[in-house]
Amino acid sequence: MNKTPYFVYLLKCGDGTLYTGITTDVARRFAEHQKGIGSHYTRAKGVVAMVYQEEVADRGAASRCEALIKRMTREEKLALIALQERKTTR
Q1: Is 42 helix (H, G, I), strand (E, B) or coil?
Q2: Phi and psi (nearest 5°) for 83?
Q3: Which Pfam family, any one, appears in the UniProt record (predicted)?
Q4: Domain 6-88 is in which class?
Q5: Mind listing the pLDDT tens digit for each residue in 35-62?
Q6: Distance between CA 75 and CA 72 in Å, rounded?
């Protein structure tokens, strides 16, 4: 039996803040946020870009990773985003 992969993601909002969430389909969820049907927060702030995504094993792992990221400072989140950007540009 194949498990559905989950993803943790960060969005940059219109006011410069970062929003963290989890999903099984990053493209679908991003489109929902852009249409204003994603979350109350992103509906109010607007969504500029998907700035981070990471695949994890299952929903439990995604929730734990989301909670960890939400506890990070803004500077730590930006460092996480920069680290992923460096990995993808190699």
Answers
A1: helix
A2: -60, -45
A3: GIY-YIG
A4: alpha beta
A5: 999 899 999 999 999 999 999 999 999 9
A6: 8
